[in-house]
Protein backbone atom coordinates (compact mmCIF):
# COMPACT_ATOMS: atom_id res chain seq x y z
CA UNK A 1 0.00 0.00 0.00
CA UNK A 2 1.35 3.41 -0.97
CA UNK A 3 0.96 6.07 1.69
CA UNK A 4 0.84 9.86 1.23
CA UNK A 5 0.77 12.59 3.87
CA UNK A 6 -0.98 15.59 2.38
CA UNK A 7 -0.29 19.12 3.54
CA UNK A 8 -0.99 21.11 0.40
CA UNK A 9 -3.67 23.75 0.97
CA UNK A 10 -5.12 26.11 -1.59
CA UNK A 11 -7.61 28.96 -1.26
CA UNK A 12 -9.26 30.07 -4.48
CA UNK A 13 -11.71 32.39 -6.14
CA UNK A 14 -14.91 31.35 -4.39
CA UNK A 15 -13.36 31.66 -0.90
CA UNK A 16 -13.49 27.88 -0.52
CA UNK A 17 -10.68 25.88 1.05
CA UNK A 18 -9.22 23.15 -1.15
CA UNK A 19 -6.80 20.42 -0.08
CA UNK A 20 -5.26 18.78 -3.10
CA UNK A 21 -2.66 16.31 -4.31
CA UNK A 22 -1.45 14.88 -7.64
CA UNK A 23 -2.32 18.18 -9.34
CA UNK A 24 1.12 19.13 -10.64
CA UNK A 25 1.48 19.54 -14.43
CA UNK A 26 3.94 16.59 -14.49
CA UNK A 27 4.06 13.66 -12.04
CA UNK A 28 7.10 11.91 -13.55
CA UNK A 29 9.34 14.46 -11.83
CA UNK A 30 7.92 13.52 -8.42
CA UNK A 31 7.61 9.73 -8.53
CA UNK A 32 10.02 7.07 -9.78
CA UNK A 33 7.42 4.30 -10.07
CA UNK A 34 3.75 3.81 -10.90
CA UNK A 35 3.55 6.88 -13.14
CA UNK A 36 2.38 6.31 -16.69
CA UNK A 37 2.95 8.89 -19.41
CA UNK A 38 0.68 8.41 -22.40
CA UNK A 39 2.32 7.75 -25.76
CA UNK A 40 -0.41 9.29 -27.90
CA UNK A 41 -0.88 12.37 -25.72
CA UNK A 42 2.51 12.75 -24.06
CA UNK A 43 1.40 15.66 -21.87
CA UNK A 44 -1.05 13.42 -20.04
CA UNK A 45 0.30 11.36 -17.15
CA UNK A 46 -1.19 9.80 -14.02
CA UNK A 47 -0.34 7.71 -10.97
CA UNK A 48 -1.75 4.21 -11.42
CA UNK A 49 -2.81 1.26 -9.30
CA UNK A 50 -3.10 -2.26 -10.66
CA UNK A 51 -2.86 -5.92 -9.69
CA UNK A 52 0.51 -5.48 -7.99
CA UNK A 53 -0.58 -2.41 -6.04
CA UNK A 54 -4.39 -2.31 -5.79
CA UNK A 55 -4.64 0.38 -3.06
CA UNK A 56 -3.79 4.06 -2.79
CA UNK A 57 -4.03 5.80 0.57
CA UNK A 58 -4.07 9.54 1.34
CA UNK A 59 -4.16 11.40 4.64
CA UNK A 60 -5.31 15.01 5.00
CA UNK A 61 -5.49 17.28 8.03
CA UNK A 62 -8.38 19.72 7.71
CA UNK A 63 -7.86 22.63 10.08
CA UNK A 64 -11.18 24.37 9.52
CA UNK A 65 -14.38 23.32 11.39
CA UNK A 66 -16.58 21.54 8.84
CA UNK A 67 -19.59 19.25 8.61
CA UNK A 68 -18.96 17.45 5.30
CA UNK A 69 -16.42 17.11 2.50
CA UNK A 70 -16.70 17.10 -1.27
CA UNK A 71 -14.26 14.70 -2.95
CA UNK A 72 -13.11 15.06 -6.56
CA UNK A 73 -10.73 12.68 -8.36
CA UNK A 74 -9.82 12.32 -12.03
CA UNK A 75 -9.90 8.63 -12.99
CA UNK A 76 -8.07 7.26 -16.05
CA UNK A 77 -9.61 3.89 -16.92
CA UNK A 78 -7.51 1.47 -19.01
CA UNK A 79 -8.19 -2.09 -20.16
CA UNK A 80 -11.21 -4.13 -19.08
CA UNK A 81 -12.76 -1.60 -16.73
CA UNK A 82 -16.50 -2.16 -17.13
CA UNK A 83 -18.50 -3.67 -14.24
CA UNK A 84 -15.46 -3.54 -11.93
CA UNK A 85 -15.74 -1.72 -8.63
CA UNK A 86 -13.46 1.08 -7.50
CA UNK A 87 -14.01 1.20 -3.74
CA UNK A 88 -13.85 4.59 -1.97
CA UNK A 89 -13.09 4.48 1.76
CA UNK A 90 -13.26 7.49 4.06
CA UNK A 91 -11.71 6.92 7.51
CA UNK A 92 -11.91 3.12 6.98
CA UNK A 93 -15.64 3.30 6.05
CA UNK A 94 -16.71 2.20 2.58
CA UNK A 95 -18.71 5.22 1.40
CA UNK A 96 -19.07 4.47 -2.32
CA UNK A 97 -18.34 2.07 -5.16
CA UNK A 98 -17.66 3.57 -8.57
CA UNK A 99 -18.33 1.40 -11.61
CA UNK A 100 -18.60 1.91 -15.37
CA UNK A 101 -21.46 -0.08 -16.88
CA UNK A 102 -20.65 0.62 -20.53
CA UNK A 103 -17.55 1.55 -22.48
CA UNK A 104 -17.17 4.78 -24.41
CA UNK A 105 -13.45 4.52 -25.11
CA UNK A 106 -11.34 7.33 -26.51
CA UNK A 107 -7.77 6.43 -27.56
CA UNK A 108 -6.12 9.28 -25.66
CA UNK A 109 -3.27 7.26 -24.14
CA UNK A 110 -2.46 4.04 -25.96
CA UNK A 111 -4.32 2.79 -29.05
CA UNK A 112 -3.62 -0.84 -28.08
CA UNK A 113 -6.00 -0.73 -25.10
CA UNK A 114 -9.39 0.84 -24.40
CA UNK A 115 -9.26 3.94 -22.24
CA UNK A 116 -11.52 6.66 -20.84
CA UNK A 117 -11.18 9.76 -18.70
CA UNK A 118 -13.83 10.49 -16.06
CA UNK A 119 -14.00 12.73 -13.02
CA UNK A 120 -15.38 11.04 -9.93
CA UNK A 121 -17.12 13.15 -7.27
CA UNK A 122 -19.02 12.52 -4.08
CA UNK A 123 -20.00 14.27 -0.86
CA UNK A 124 -19.94 12.73 2.60
CA UNK A 125 -20.48 13.80 6.21
CA UNK A 126 -17.26 14.50 8.06
CA UNK A 127 -16.26 16.75 10.98
CA UNK A 128 -12.91 15.49 12.28
CA UNK A 129 -9.56 17.15 11.56
CA UNK A 130 -7.92 13.97 10.26
CA UNK A 131 -9.25 12.53 7.02
CA UNK A 132 -8.06 9.29 5.45
CA UNK A 133 -8.99 8.58 1.82
CA UNK A 134 -8.42 5.09 0.39
CA UNK A 135 -8.95 4.21 -3.29
CA UNK A 136 -9.03 0.45 -3.91
CA UNK A 137 -9.48 -1.84 -6.92
CA UNK A 138 -11.76 -4.78 -6.13
CA UNK A 139 -11.00 -6.73 -9.32
CA UNK A 140 -7.63 -5.99 -10.93
CA UNK A 141 -7.79 -8.46 -13.82
CA UNK A 142 -6.71 -6.61 -16.97
CA UNK A 143 -7.65 -3.33 -15.29
CA UNK A 144 -5.41 -0.33 -14.55
CA UNK A 145 -6.77 2.74 -12.76
CA UNK A 146 -4.95 6.04 -13.14
CA UNK A 147 -5.46 8.66 -10.41
CA UNK A 148 -4.99 12.41 -10.86
CA UNK A 149 -6.05 15.68 -9.21
CA UNK A 150 -7.38 14.56 -5.83
CA UNK A 151 -9.20 17.55 -4.33
CA UNK A 152 -10.94 17.69 -0.96
CA UNK A 153 -13.27 20.64 -0.38
CA UNK A 154 -14.53 20.89 3.21
CA UNK A 155 -18.01 22.33 3.71
CA UNK A 156 -17.28 24.85 6.41
CA UNK A 157 -19.19 25.64 9.57
CA UNK A 158 -20.29 29.15 10.37
CA UNK A 159 -17.33 31.10 11.74
CA UNK A 160 -18.84 31.14 15.25
CA UNK A 161 -18.98 27.30 15.49
CA UNK A 162 -16.20 24.84 16.30
CA UNK A 163 -18.44 21.89 15.34
CA UNK A 164 -21.67 21.98 13.38
CA UNK A 165 -24.27 20.09 11.36
CA UNK A 166 -24.55 22.72 8.63
CA UNK A 167 -23.21 26.06 7.39
CA UNK A 168 -25.59 28.40 9.21
CA UNK A 169 -25.00 30.13 12.54
CA UNK A 170 -27.95 28.26 14.08
CA UNK A 171 -26.45 24.84 13.25
CA UNK A 172 -23.64 24.81 15.82
CA UNK A 173 -22.81 21.76 17.96
CA UNK A 174 -19.99 23.37 19.94
CA UNK A 175 -18.54 26.86 20.34
CA UNK A 176 -15.24 28.67 20.74
CA UNK A 177 -13.83 29.24 24.22
CA UNK A 178 -15.77 32.01 25.97
CA UNK A 179 -18.90 31.70 23.85
CA UNK A 180 -22.00 29.80 24.94
CA UNK A 181 -24.25 27.47 22.94
CA UNK A 182 -27.86 28.59 23.13
CA UNK A 183 -29.78 25.32 23.33
CA UNK A 184 -32.94 26.88 21.90
CA UNK A 185 -31.37 28.44 18.80
CA UNK A 186 -28.17 26.34 18.48
CA UNK A 187 -26.23 29.58 18.10
CA UNK A 188 -22.94 30.48 19.75
CA UNK A 189 -23.38 33.74 21.65
CA UNK A 190 -21.12 35.92 23.76
CA UNK A 191 -22.00 36.69 27.41
CA UNK A 192 -23.24 40.23 28.27
CA UNK A 193 -19.94 41.27 29.89
CA UNK A 194 -17.99 40.25 26.74
CA UNK A 195 -20.46 41.14 23.98
CA UNK A 196 -18.15 41.24 20.93
CA UNK A 197 -17.01 38.11 19.11
CA UNK A 198 -13.64 38.47 17.37
CA UNK A 199 -13.39 36.48 14.14
CA UNK A 200 -9.58 36.74 14.18
CA UNK A 201 -9.04 35.81 17.84
CA UNK A 202 -11.98 33.39 17.91
CA UNK A 203 -13.17 34.57 21.32
CA UNK A 204 -15.48 37.06 23.01
CA UNK A 205 -14.13 40.50 23.92
CA UNK A 206 -15.31 43.48 25.92
CA UNK A 207 -14.59 45.56 22.80
CA UNK A 208 -12.96 45.06 19.41
CA UNK A 209 -9.17 44.98 19.20
CA UNK A 210 -7.37 47.98 17.68
CA UNK A 211 -6.72 46.07 14.43
CA UNK A 212 -10.41 45.16 14.12
CA UNK A 213 -13.64 47.09 13.88
CA UNK A 214 -17.23 46.43 14.86
CA UNK A 215 -19.23 45.14 11.89
CA UNK A 216 -22.88 45.93 12.65
CA UNK A 217 -24.19 43.62 9.89
CA UNK A 218 -22.65 40.52 11.52
CA UNK A 219 -22.46 41.84 15.10
CA UNK A 220 -18.80 40.81 15.23
CA UNK A 221 -15.29 42.23 15.28
CA UNK A 222 -13.64 41.97 11.86
CA UNK A 223 -10.33 43.01 10.33
CA UNK A 224 -10.21 46.45 8.75
CA UNK A 225 -7.93 46.12 5.71
CA UNK A 226 -8.21 49.84 4.95
CA UNK A 227 -6.60 51.03 8.19
CA UNK A 228 -3.69 53.41 7.65
CA UNK A 229 -1.52 55.57 9.98
CA UNK A 230 -2.84 54.30 13.29
CA UNK A 231 -2.17 56.38 16.42
CA UNK A 232 -2.97 55.18 19.94
CA UNK A 233 -3.28 57.31 23.08
CA UNK A 234 -3.87 56.63 26.76
CA UNK A 235 -3.65 52.85 26.76
CA UNK A 236 -0.92 51.82 29.17
CA UNK A 237 1.12 55.00 28.74
CA UNK A 238 0.00 58.61 29.06
CA UNK A 239 1.66 60.96 26.58
CA UNK A 240 -0.18 64.29 26.28
CA UNK A 241 1.87 65.64 23.38
CA UNK A 242 -0.39 67.34 20.83
CA UNK A 243 -3.42 67.40 23.15
CA UNK A 244 -5.07 70.60 24.34
CA UNK A 245 -7.92 71.41 26.73
CA UNK A 246 -10.34 74.19 25.79
CA UNK A 247 -12.52 76.11 28.24
CA UNK A 248 -14.26 79.44 27.59
CA UNK A 249 -12.55 79.44 24.14
CA UNK A 250 -9.13 79.43 25.80
CA UNK A 251 -6.86 76.53 24.76
CA UNK A 252 -4.07 75.18 26.93
CA UNK A 253 -1.80 72.17 26.78
CA UNK A 254 -3.39 69.14 28.40
CA UNK A 255 -1.53 68.33 31.59
CA UNK A 256 -1.42 65.13 33.63
CA UNK A 257 -5.05 64.53 34.64
CA UNK A 258 -5.00 60.80 35.28
CA UNK A 259 -7.80 59.49 37.51
CA UNK A 260 -7.74 55.73 38.12
CA UNK A 261 -6.24 55.15 34.68
CA UNK A 262 -8.69 57.55 33.00
CA UNK A 263 -7.78 60.94 31.53
CA UNK A 264 -10.11 63.35 33.36
CA UNK A 265 -12.01 64.54 35.30
CA UNK A 266 -13.41 67.08 32.81
CA UNK A 267 -16.51 69.20 33.20
CA UNK A 268 -19.20 69.69 30.55
CA UNK A 269 -17.67 73.12 29.85
CA UNK A 270 -14.35 71.58 28.85
CA UNK A 271 -13.35 70.20 25.44
CA UNK A 272 -10.20 68.27 24.64
CA UNK A 273 -8.70 68.24 21.16
CA UNK A 274 -5.91 66.68 19.12
CA UNK A 275 -4.30 67.64 15.81
CA UNK A 276 -4.17 64.48 13.66
CA UNK A 277 -1.62 64.76 10.85
CA UNK A 278 -3.55 62.91 8.19
CA UNK A 279 -2.32 63.94 4.77
CA UNK A 280 -3.94 61.72 2.14
CA UNK A 281 -6.89 62.92 0.07
CA UNK A 282 -9.99 60.73 -0.23
CA UNK A 283 -9.32 59.14 3.18
CA UNK A 284 -11.77 59.07 6.06
CA UNK A 285 -10.86 59.19 9.74
CA UNK A 286 -11.93 56.53 12.19
CA UNK A 287 -12.17 57.65 15.83
CA UNK A 288 -12.45 55.10 18.61
CA UNK A 289 -12.38 55.82 22.33
CA UNK A 290 -13.72 54.83 25.74
CA UNK A 291 -15.69 57.63 27.40
CA UNK A 292 -16.24 57.49 31.18
CA UNK A 293 -19.15 59.40 32.76
CA UNK A 294 -19.05 60.26 36.47
CA UNK A 295 -21.69 61.97 38.68
CA UNK A 296 -24.23 62.50 35.89
CA UNK A 297 -27.91 62.83 36.82
CA UNK A 298 -29.14 62.67 33.24
CA UNK A 299 -28.03 60.71 30.20
CA UNK A 300 -25.27 62.80 28.59
CA UNK A 301 -24.71 63.50 24.90
CA UNK A 302 -21.24 62.70 23.53
CA UNK A 303 -19.94 64.93 20.73
CA UNK A 304 -17.02 64.45 18.35
CA UNK A 305 -16.02 67.33 16.09
CA UNK A 306 -13.67 66.72 13.17
CA UNK A 307 -12.71 70.01 11.52
CA UNK A 308 -16.03 71.80 10.86
CA UNK A 309 -18.40 68.91 11.49
CA UNK A 310 -19.68 68.32 15.02
CA UNK A 311 -21.74 65.17 15.59
CA UNK A 312 -23.69 63.72 18.50
CA UNK A 313 -22.19 60.23 18.41
CA UNK A 314 -24.22 57.19 19.38
CA UNK A 315 -22.04 54.75 21.37
CA UNK A 316 -21.66 51.15 20.26
CA UNK A 317 -22.42 50.00 23.81
CA UNK A 318 -22.27 51.11 27.41
CA UNK A 319 -21.68 49.52 30.79
CA UNK A 320 -22.61 50.68 34.28
CA UNK A 321 -19.92 50.05 36.89
CA UNK A 322 -21.11 50.37 40.49
CA UNK A 323 -19.15 50.84 43.69
CA UNK A 324 -17.24 53.62 45.41
CA UNK A 325 -15.94 54.90 42.06
CA UNK A 326 -19.01 54.10 40.01
CA UNK A 327 -19.23 55.26 36.41
CA UNK A 328 -20.75 54.58 33.01
CA UNK A 329 -18.45 53.40 30.24
CA UNK A 330 -19.27 54.16 26.59
CA UNK A 331 -17.46 52.59 23.60
CA UNK A 332 -17.22 55.00 20.65
CA UNK A 333 -16.54 54.05 17.01
CA UNK A 334 -17.07 56.88 14.54
CA UNK A 335 -16.08 57.40 10.87
CA UNK A 336 -16.11 60.73 9.05
CA UNK A 337 -14.49 62.28 5.99
CA UNK A 338 -11.77 64.75 6.90
CA UNK A 339 -9.49 67.42 5.54
CA UNK A 340 -5.71 67.19 5.76
CA UNK A 341 -4.27 67.76 9.26
CA UNK A 342 -7.61 67.36 10.98
CA UNK A 343 -8.49 68.78 14.36
CA UNK A 344 -10.45 66.26 16.46
CA UNK A 345 -12.42 67.40 19.51
CA UNK A 346 -14.29 65.53 22.27
CA UNK A 347 -16.97 67.19 24.40
CA UNK A 348 -20.14 66.43 26.36
CA UNK A 349 -23.54 67.92 27.09
CA UNK A 350 -25.14 67.03 30.41
CA UNK A 351 -26.08 68.42 33.79
CA UNK A 352 -23.61 70.84 35.40
CA UNK A 353 -22.38 68.20 37.87
CA UNK A 354 -21.32 65.78 35.14
CA UNK A 355 -17.66 64.79 35.09
CA UNK A 356 -16.16 62.79 32.27
CA UNK A 357 -12.92 61.16 31.21
CA UNK A 358 -11.39 59.32 28.28
CA UNK A 359 -8.84 56.59 27.54
CA UNK A 360 -7.87 54.00 24.91
CA UNK A 361 -8.16 56.48 22.03
CA UNK A 362 -7.42 55.26 18.50
CA UNK A 363 -7.13 57.50 15.43
CA UNK A 364 -6.54 56.10 11.98
CA UNK A 365 -7.13 56.90 8.35
CA UNK A 366 -9.49 54.76 6.26
CA UNK A 367 -7.81 54.29 2.91
CA UNK A 368 -9.80 53.97 -0.33
CA UNK A 369 -8.14 50.60 -0.91
CA UNK A 370 -5.61 48.48 1.02
CA UNK A 371 -1.96 49.30 0.23
CA UNK A 372 -2.92 52.37 -1.79
CA UNK A 373 -0.49 55.30 -1.88
CA UNK A 374 -2.77 57.81 -3.60
CA UNK A 375 -6.52 57.64 -4.26
CA UNK A 376 -8.49 59.15 -7.13
CA UNK A 377 -11.91 58.62 -5.50
CA UNK A 378 -13.14 57.19 -2.19
CA UNK A 379 -13.19 53.71 -3.71
CA UNK A 380 -10.50 53.89 -6.43
CA UNK A 381 -6.72 53.84 -6.06
CA UNK A 382 -4.47 55.84 -8.38
CA UNK A 383 -1.06 54.55 -7.28
CA UNK A 384 0.07 51.79 -4.92
CA UNK A 385 2.72 51.47 -2.26
CA UNK A 386 6.07 49.88 -3.02
CA UNK A 387 5.80 46.15 -3.70
CA UNK A 388 2.22 46.34 -5.01
CA UNK A 389 0.73 46.70 -8.49
CA UNK A 390 -2.26 48.78 -9.53
CA UNK A 391 -5.08 46.74 -11.08
CA UNK A 392 -8.44 48.32 -11.96
CA UNK A 393 -8.25 50.81 -9.12
CA UNK A 394 -6.99 48.37 -6.47
CA UNK A 395 -3.58 47.18 -5.29
CA UNK A 396 -2.47 43.57 -5.82
CA UNK A 397 0.72 41.62 -5.21
CA UNK A 398 0.76 40.10 -8.71
CA UNK A 399 -1.20 40.59 -11.90
CA UNK A 400 -4.41 38.51 -12.01
CA UNK A 401 -5.38 36.35 -14.96
CA UNK A 402 -6.67 38.27 -17.97
CA UNK A 403 -4.12 41.02 -17.23
CA UNK A 404 -0.44 41.69 -17.86
CA UNK A 405 2.24 43.94 -16.43
CA UNK A 406 2.33 47.47 -17.82
CA UNK A 407 4.73 50.31 -16.94
CA UNK A 408 6.39 48.20 -14.22
CA UNK A 409 3.81 49.02 -11.52
CA UNK A 410 0.45 48.53 -13.25
CA UNK A 411 -1.53 45.48 -14.34
CA UNK A 412 -3.53 46.18 -17.50
CA UNK A 413 -6.71 44.10 -17.76
CA UNK A 414 -7.54 42.83 -21.23
CA UNK A 415 -10.78 44.83 -21.18
CA UNK A 416 -8.76 48.05 -21.00
CA UNK A 417 -7.73 47.44 -24.63
CA UNK A 418 -11.30 48.20 -25.69
CA UNK A 419 -13.19 51.46 -24.98
CA UNK A 420 -16.12 51.19 -22.52
CA UNK A 421 -15.73 47.40 -22.29
CA UNK A 422 -17.70 45.32 -19.77
CA UNK A 423 -16.99 41.64 -19.05
CA UNK A 424 -20.14 39.52 -19.34
CA UNK A 425 -18.46 36.12 -18.96
CA UNK A 426 -15.05 35.05 -17.64
CA UNK A 427 -14.38 31.43 -16.71
CA UNK A 428 -12.41 28.17 -16.95
CA UNK A 429 -9.13 29.58 -15.69
CA UNK A 430 -7.98 27.09 -13.05
CA UNK A 431 -7.89 23.42 -12.11
CA UNK A 432 -9.97 23.58 -8.91
CA UNK A 433 -12.81 21.25 -9.85
CA UNK A 434 -15.37 22.80 -7.47
CA UNK A 435 -14.57 26.18 -8.97
CA UNK A 436 -14.65 24.72 -12.50
CA UNK A 437 -18.09 23.20 -11.91
CA UNK A 438 -19.49 26.42 -10.46
CA UNK A 439 -18.38 28.36 -13.51
CA UNK A 440 -19.32 25.81 -16.17
CA UNK A 441 -22.50 24.03 -15.13
CA UNK A 442 -24.26 27.26 -14.23
CA UNK A 443 -23.21 29.16 -17.33
CA UNK A 444 -22.60 26.96 -20.34
CA UNK A 445 -24.87 24.42 -22.03
CA UNK A 446 -23.42 21.57 -24.05
CA UNK A 447 -24.38 18.41 -25.91
CA UNK A 448 -23.15 15.02 -24.67
CA UNK A 449 -20.07 16.12 -22.82
CA UNK A 450 -18.56 15.87 -19.36
CA UNK A 451 -18.78 19.00 -17.25
CA UNK A 452 -15.54 18.01 -15.54
CA UNK A 453 -13.35 18.59 -18.56
CA UNK A 454 -9.90 17.27 -19.45
CA UNK A 455 -6.72 18.05 -17.50
CA UNK A 456 -3.92 18.57 -20.01
CA UNK A 457 -0.46 20.05 -19.42
CA UNK A 458 -1.55 21.59 -16.11
CA UNK A 459 -4.75 23.17 -17.45
CA UNK A 460 -8.34 21.91 -17.17
CA UNK A 461 -10.21 22.30 -20.46
CA UNK A 462 -13.97 22.35 -20.73
CA UNK A 463 -14.74 19.38 -22.97
CA UNK A 464 -11.58 17.84 -24.34
CA UNK A 465 -10.88 14.16 -24.96
CA UNK A 466 -14.10 12.33 -25.78
CA UNK A 467 -15.44 10.18 -28.57
CA UNK A 468 -18.37 12.17 -29.92
CA UNK A 469 -18.85 12.89 -33.64
CA UNK A 470 -20.14 16.39 -32.79
CA UNK A 471 -19.30 18.70 -29.95
CA UNK A 472 -21.52 21.70 -29.39
CA UNK A 473 -21.20 24.38 -26.71
CA UNK A 474 -23.73 27.17 -26.31
CA UNK A 475 -24.08 30.20 -24.10
CA UNK A 476 -27.10 32.51 -23.94
CA UNK A 477 -26.92 36.10 -22.69
CA UNK A 478 -30.08 38.07 -21.89
CA UNK A 479 -30.90 41.71 -21.11
CA UNK A 480 -27.50 43.05 -22.07
CA UNK A 481 -26.95 46.81 -21.65
CA UNK A 482 -26.79 48.96 -24.81
CA UNK A 483 -23.65 48.09 -26.76
CA UNK A 484 -22.28 48.12 -30.29
CA UNK A 485 -19.67 45.31 -30.24
CA UNK A 486 -18.96 41.87 -28.79
CA UNK A 487 -15.43 40.60 -28.12
CA UNK A 488 -14.93 36.84 -27.68
CA UNK A 489 -11.60 35.41 -26.48
CA UNK A 490 -10.66 31.87 -25.48
CA UNK A 491 -7.98 29.22 -25.73
CA UNK A 492 -8.82 26.10 -27.67
CA UNK A 493 -7.02 22.75 -27.65
CA UNK A 494 -7.80 20.22 -30.38
CA UNK A 495 -7.13 16.47 -30.42
CA UNK A 496 -7.08 14.38 -33.60
CA UNK A 497 -6.48 10.70 -34.27
CA UNK A 498 -6.81 9.03 -37.64
CA UNK A 499 -5.82 9.39 -41.28
CA UNK A 500 -8.12 12.18 -42.32
CA UNK A 501 -7.32 13.92 -45.60
CA UNK A 502 -8.91 17.26 -44.74
CA UNK A 503 -8.45 19.13 -41.47
CA UNK A 504 -11.16 19.04 -38.86
CA UNK A 505 -12.76 22.43 -38.22
CA UNK A 506 -14.88 24.32 -35.73
CA UNK A 507 -17.40 27.11 -36.14
CA UNK A 508 -17.77 30.07 -33.82
CA UNK A 509 -21.37 31.23 -34.25
CA UNK A 510 -23.14 34.36 -33.09
CA UNK A 511 -26.95 34.21 -33.16
CA UNK A 512 -26.72 31.31 -35.67
CA UNK A 513 -24.37 33.27 -37.94
CA UNK A 514 -20.85 31.96 -38.47
CA UNK A 515 -18.25 34.59 -37.53
CA UNK A 516 -15.10 32.43 -37.55
CA UNK A 517 -13.84 29.07 -38.86
CA UNK A 518 -11.11 27.50 -36.71
CA UNK A 519 -8.88 24.84 -38.23
CA UNK A 520 -7.64 22.08 -35.95
CA UNK A 521 -3.98 22.08 -34.91
CA UNK A 522 -3.11 18.75 -33.33
CA UNK A 523 -2.31 19.04 -29.61
CA UNK A 524 -1.68 22.76 -30.00
CA UNK A 525 -3.27 25.53 -27.97
CA UNK A 526 -4.69 28.30 -30.15
CA UNK A 527 -5.50 31.71 -28.70
CA UNK A 528 -8.68 32.97 -30.32
CA UNK A 529 -9.79 36.62 -30.26
CA UNK A 530 -12.73 37.73 -32.37
CA UNK A 531 -14.83 40.90 -32.32
CA UNK A 532 -17.99 41.63 -34.27
CA UNK A 533 -20.74 44.24 -34.42
CA UNK A 534 -23.75 43.50 -32.23
CA UNK A 535 -26.59 45.62 -30.82
CA UNK A 536 -29.34 43.26 -29.64
CA UNK A 537 -30.13 42.91 -25.93
CA UNK A 538 -29.83 39.12 -26.30
CA UNK A 539 -26.86 37.12 -27.55
CA UNK A 540 -26.22 33.46 -28.33
CA UNK A 541 -22.68 32.15 -28.79
CA UNK A 542 -21.85 28.61 -29.87
CA UNK A 543 -18.89 26.45 -30.82
CA UNK A 544 -19.59 23.51 -33.14
CA UNK A 545 -17.10 20.88 -34.32
CA UNK A 546 -17.03 19.27 -37.79
CA UNK A 547 -15.34 15.86 -37.82
CA UNK A 548 -13.93 14.52 -41.06
CA UNK A 549 -14.21 10.86 -42.09
CA UNK A 550 -11.70 8.34 -40.71
CA UNK A 551 -10.72 10.54 -37.79
CA UNK A 552 -11.45 10.99 -34.11
CA UNK A 553 -11.69 14.66 -33.30
CA UNK A 554 -12.42 16.53 -30.08
CA UNK A 555 -11.61 19.88 -28.55
CA UNK A 556 -11.59 21.67 -25.23
CA UNK A 557 -11.71 25.36 -24.31
CA UNK A 558 -10.26 27.36 -21.44
CA UNK A 559 -9.79 30.97 -20.34
CA UNK A 560 -13.05 32.12 -21.90
CA UNK A 561 -13.49 35.89 -21.85
CA UNK A 562 -16.57 37.54 -23.38
CA UNK A 563 -16.97 41.32 -23.36
CA UNK A 564 -19.24 43.97 -24.81
CA UNK A 565 -18.37 47.55 -25.78
CA UNK A 566 -20.99 49.81 -24.21
CA UNK A 567 -22.70 52.79 -25.77
CA UNK A 568 -22.35 56.33 -24.44
CA UNK A 569 -24.22 56.88 -21.10
CA UNK A 570 -28.01 57.23 -21.54
CA UNK A 571 -27.75 55.98 -25.12
CA UNK A 572 -30.22 53.20 -25.98
CA UNK A 573 -28.81 52.19 -29.37
CA UNK A 574 -25.50 53.07 -31.05
CA UNK A 575 -22.84 52.11 -33.57
CA UNK A 576 -19.84 53.39 -31.58
CA UNK A 577 -18.67 54.62 -28.14
CA UNK A 578 -19.09 58.38 -28.63
CA UNK A 579 -22.05 60.69 -28.04
CA UNK A 580 -22.26 61.35 -31.78
CA UNK A 581 -22.56 57.58 -32.42
CA UNK A 582 -25.88 57.32 -30.57
CA UNK A 583 -28.96 56.49 -32.64
CA UNK A 584 -31.58 56.56 -29.86
CA UNK A 585 -31.51 57.97 -26.32
CA UNK A 586 -32.94 56.51 -23.09
CA UNK A 587 -35.79 58.53 -21.55
CA UNK A 588 -34.78 59.29 -17.95
CA UNK A 589 -36.74 61.74 -15.80
CA UNK A 590 -33.50 62.68 -14.01
CA UNK A 591 -31.63 63.69 -17.17
CA UNK A 592 -31.26 66.94 -19.10
CA UNK A 593 -32.34 66.60 -22.75
CA UNK A 594 -31.94 62.80 -22.28
CA UNK A 595 -28.15 63.09 -22.73
CA UNK A 596 -26.75 63.96 -19.31
CA UNK A 597 -27.90 63.38 -15.74
CA UNK A 598 -29.18 66.37 -13.78
CA UNK A 599 -27.20 67.88 -10.94
CA UNK A 600 -27.31 65.59 -7.93
CA UNK A 601 -27.45 62.48 -10.12
CA UNK A 602 -24.89 60.25 -11.82
CA UNK A 603 -25.27 57.57 -14.49
CA UNK A 604 -25.16 54.00 -13.17
CA UNK A 605 -23.92 51.51 -15.77
CA UNK A 606 -25.51 48.48 -14.13
CA UNK A 607 -28.97 50.04 -13.71
CA UNK A 608 -28.71 52.04 -16.96
CA UNK A 609 -30.24 55.13 -15.38
CA UNK A 610 -29.42 58.29 -13.45
CA UNK A 611 -29.13 57.61 -9.71
CA UNK A 612 -28.71 59.92 -6.75
CA UNK A 613 -25.30 61.21 -5.75
CA UNK A 614 -24.39 60.92 -2.04
CA UNK A 615 -26.60 62.88 0.35
CA UNK A 616 -26.15 66.65 0.00
CA UNK A 617 -24.05 66.33 -3.15
CA UNK A 618 -24.73 68.43 -6.24
CA UNK A 619 -21.98 66.93 -8.42
CA UNK A 620 -20.21 63.60 -7.83
CA UNK A 621 -17.63 61.33 -9.46
CA UNK A 622 -19.37 58.19 -8.23
CA UNK A 623 -21.93 57.22 -5.60
CA UNK A 624 -19.35 57.67 -2.84
CA UNK A 625 -17.22 60.65 -3.91
CA UNK A 626 -18.69 64.17 -3.93
CA UNK A 627 -17.16 67.08 -5.85
CA UNK A 628 -19.63 69.89 -5.00
CA UNK A 629 -22.24 70.24 -2.24
CA UNK A 630 -25.80 71.58 -2.23
CA UNK A 631 -26.89 74.67 -0.30
CA UNK A 632 -26.44 74.53 3.50
CA UNK A 633 -24.26 71.43 3.22
CA UNK A 634 -20.54 71.66 4.03
CA UNK A 635 -17.96 69.79 1.98
CA UNK A 636 -15.39 68.02 4.12
CA UNK A 637 -13.05 65.55 2.52
CA UNK A 638 -15.20 64.04 -0.22
CA UNK A 639 -18.57 64.06 1.50
CA UNK A 640 -21.20 66.68 2.26
CA UNK A 641 -22.47 67.21 5.80
CA UNK A 642 -25.47 69.10 7.12
CA UNK A 643 -24.01 71.29 9.84
CA UNK A 644 -27.34 71.76 11.64
CA UNK A 645 -27.95 68.01 11.60
CA UNK A 646 -31.56 68.64 10.50
CA UNK A 647 -32.43 67.08 7.11
CA UNK A 648 -35.89 67.23 5.54
CA UNK A 649 -37.14 63.66 5.11
CA UNK A 650 -38.97 64.51 1.88
CA UNK A 651 -36.69 66.95 0.02
CA UNK A 652 -33.42 65.74 1.65
CA UNK A 653 -32.46 69.41 2.08
CA UNK A 654 -30.30 70.60 4.96
CA UNK A 655 -32.43 72.85 7.18
CA UNK A 656 -30.92 75.91 8.84
CA UNK A 657 -30.62 76.13 12.62
CA UNK A 658 -33.96 76.96 14.25
Automatic annotation (TrEMBL):
<dbReference type="InterPro" id="IPR009030">
    <property type="entry name" value="Growth_fac_rcpt_cys_sf"/>
</dbReference>
<keyword id="KW-0732">Signal</keyword>
<dbReference type="InterPro" id="IPR006212">
    <property type="entry name" value="Furin_repeat"/>
</dbReference>
<protein>
    <recommendedName>
        <fullName>TNFR-Cys domain-containing protein</fullName>
    </recommendedName>
</protein>
<feature type="signal peptide">
    <location>
        <begin position="1"/>
        <end position="15"/>
    </location>
</feature>
